[in-house]
Amino acid sequence: MLTITKVFKHFGTITKHKWLVFKLAVKAGIPLRGLLHDLSKYSPAEFIEGVKYYNGKRSPNACAKEDYGYSKAWIHHFGRNKHHHQYWHDYDTPNQTPMMPYKYVVEMICDDLSAGITYMGKDWYPGYQLKYWENRKDRLKVNENLKDLLTEVLTDVEKNGIDKVINKKKLKRLYAKYNAKELAKNKNR
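and the corresponding structure tokens:
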């Protein structure tokens, strides 16, 4: 059901999430990606379903999937936002899940951390994202080098905290490490 209260609460949640992504993206050296992050969430295709399934505890997309088996808003969202690994799937090619470009990988990391902080609130802790990732990564169709990169970043966040990990120098170094593995793998094909 759509109510004015849910409209404002959903708007507040997505705006808080977007603000946290922006702050992390600035720390990571990609402020423009942070500024442009998730603008599609304000479109009618995503916003209306978000309001309908808003509950303040978890993603409305997950709730819609429980009702319908899919979420129209989620399909719309990942098809327009390159920081989601689903955007990069191409089932009709030998390399179905290529390594994503650096700026979108970093935006994805900022997005993931922000989503956890936004939905968990005061219950969020530095190891939360790693635990969440470990519980789902094997079910996802994601480039293997990207999986390893995300695991290393989230493990580092658990050990050292966001402030020590989310910075341009560290993220560039880690991306270069795993992208080199990807390039070597593709060269050997």
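(Above: one complete record from the training split.) The chain has a mean pLDDT of 95.
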